């Protein structure tokens, strides 16, 4: 999984009725675009994320 600053990170809900969490990658802490990432979520919360299989990267040039 590779990302760049400005890409969206989408953590899909794992339980019926749980909404997806969407955030913007604000810093790449791994080498060559690999995790971990610093992510700012829609509610303003920031955190470190090492994405799992329920996570999707939406690249900023294809996010729309």
From TrEMBL:
Q: Could you tell me where the Basic and acidic residues compositional bias lies?
A: 55-64
| Protein's name according to its UniProt entry | DUF1918 domain-containing protein
**Which one Pfam family would you cite for this protein?**
DUF1918
Location of region: Disordered: 43-64
Q: Which residues form the DUF1918 domain?
A: 1-57
Report the InterPro entries cross-referenced here. DUF1918
The domain of life is Bacteria
Coiled-coil residues:
none
């Amino acid at each position: 999984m590779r990302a760049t600053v400005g890409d969206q990170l989408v953590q899909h809900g794992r339980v019926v009725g749980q909404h997806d969490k969407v955030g913007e990658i604000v810093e790449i802490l791994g080498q060559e675009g690999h995790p971990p990432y610093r992510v700012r979520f829609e509610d303003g919360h920031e955190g470190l994320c090492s994405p799992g299989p329920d996570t999707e990267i939406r690249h900023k040039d294809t996010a729309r």
